[in-house]
Amino acid sequence: MIIPSEIKKKPFEYLFLVLFFTIGICFYLFAGLSSSNQRFVVISLGAGYFFWSLYHHYHRGDLSLSIIIEYLVFILFGIVLFSGTFF
Amino acid sequence: MKYFWKHWFLPLEKNNHRSALLRTNTLLILIAFYLFNHSLIKFISVIKPGILGYSSEITIQKVIDQTNQKRQEIGLKPLKYNSILSESATKKAQDMFTNNYWAHTSPTGTTPWDFFKSVGYKYSVAGENLARDFYDTDSLMKAWMNSPTHRDNIVNSKYQEIGIGVVNGVLGGIKTTLVVQHFGTPLVAIASDTKNVNTKQNTEVTLPADSQTQETTLNNQEIISLPQTPEVLSQQKKLISPLLLNKIISLVLFSLIITVLFIDGFVTLKNNHHRLTGSNIGHIGFLFMILLLIITSQQGAIF
């Protein structure tokens, strides 16, 4: 099985991300939230992912404006499509 | 032609070792495309209500069957269908379309109990569940059962009868189906049980707790439930729900980007290229999480 070198180098950072997403999914699905709170949870998950990316790339030494914009666009993509589906 | 596909799906020297579909400007175009489609679907729903439709799977009989199934699972007696209660439930649904609201009590102060009274149903206990924007009965029942307050109504041992109103109309500019569940126990039943005809009328009422309220506008409505004969919605003209259409477009776009992220990451790893981009694994994780939430989330709203 091929494990990408970036995971080998920073396994705990990716483990933290997996745990963060898992907790977010469980909270979203099982907390009996109203639709406005569901949207808030998804936006919070996007914000969390953005901060993780800043930390991750800062420690990797390749944090740049183009990378920040890339993450923001991916997060925007996820949140817009999610919101458009339900609201 | 072959290069065209490679350019969009594979990291090449000519596209600076990044699949063109994953570039930020391409993603922004996809977001704009999605928003345009979303607005178009909403626009068509308002201008040409006959083109896009609403739920075509919900049936009154299924709602009653599943409600009774849930009750029997915990040892309660099944509810008896009452056409008068269905009439009050249908009137309630019509009233929400007519008076632009989505709540148990109308802006003018009309309560659910006014609908029970208007059809001449004298109750000792009564309750109401509301739902909108569901495509099928299974999802609707699942949402109600997942909500403790709605569940309490469904499995309340005090109720003996049930009536369902399923009405199609335009709410907030979108064609939708409103489902109203009215529960009750007639006063006569209590009186004959207790031999006490002096029992106070309308003694107890139950509504699920307030979860959300939406102000909506009315354009059109159509009654599809007959109080005396439970009718199947699928007998109506089958139309695609705009909500379902939005969901399908979202799922297609998510699947496309996740697939390209996989391909792009795999090829880059195989060729051992180093490039200044974000983490494909992180992006896949984030988008996959949202995809999972879209797939597993309930379709409509309950009240």
What does this structure look like?
The complex is a heterodimer of chains A (87) and B (303). Chain A is mainly alpha-helical. Helices cover 84% and strands 0% of the residues of chain A. Chain A is built from 4 helices and no strands. In chain A, helix 2 packs antiparallel against helix 3 (35-60) and helix 3 (35-60) runs antiparallel to helix 4. The longest helix of chain A has 26 residues, at 35-60. The N and C termini of chain A lie far apart (41 Å). The mean pLDDT of chain A is 87. Chain B has 303 residues and is an alpha+beta fold. Chain B has helices at residues 2-9, 24-47, 60-73, 83-98, 112-118, 137-146, 148-154, 187-194, 242-271, 280-296, and strands spanning 80-81, 101-102, 123-132, 161-171, 174-186, 204-206, 214-215, 218-223, 301-302. Classes of the chains: A mainly alpha (87), B alpha+beta (303).
